[in-house]
């Protein structure tokens, strides 16, 4: 049997199937990226709910694997050389999974790097900006009288959606006909922006028909629908 005792996180969230990939996450836009990828790839895995509403990502056990204190984190008991590997940061995990399987990313080196740049675009731009819109539009930030921060993040989010709109003009997916981790990295964020964050009208989302069609195509994928609710909230 696979021994995960070297990972303190496995003591707080014990594995029922230690031979499978262990996912420690919560169904947020960052969290569901990895569950969607795992569902798309069909890799055996076990999902553990790390309840961010109860600050479980700041416990010593979680921080031992992810010092940044953010979901998700992952252990692959069958890592490089057959040895277990622990990983944090969703973008790095997505790249690891593509390297492990040779799927969800083009084989051609130039197109591979093009895909990676769009994953980084999500991590450096889409995620942080949309998250700030959520804070200032829906959560505690909405009580701040000075609306300049909200306007700044609204305008920047709209600009970023415009970048996606230009890229998706004449394309089914970010990488033309290839559905990749670039799409997976962004689907949950765009969905949250107009759904959970209730910012559809705020950012003028209906002006971006190509992004809307892309989102609809992505959400229609069975693996995406499953991954959006993994791990189940508790």
UniProtKB/TrEMBL annotation:
Coiled coil: none
InterPro entries: Glutathione-S-Trfase_C-like, Glutathione-S-Trfase_C_sf, Glutathione_S-Trfase, Glutathione_S-Trfase_N, GST_C, Thioredoxin-like_sf
Gene3D superfamilies the UniProt entry points to: 1.20.1050.10, Glutaredoxin
Residue ranges occupied by any GST N-terminal domain in the UniProt entry: 18-105
Residue ranges of every copy of the GST C-terminal domain listed in the record: 108-234
Entry-linked PANTHER family: DISULFIDE-BOND OXIDOREDUCTASE YFCG, GLUTATHIONE S-TRANSFERASE-RELATED
Family: Belongs to the GST superfamily.
Name this protein carries in UniProt: GST-like protein
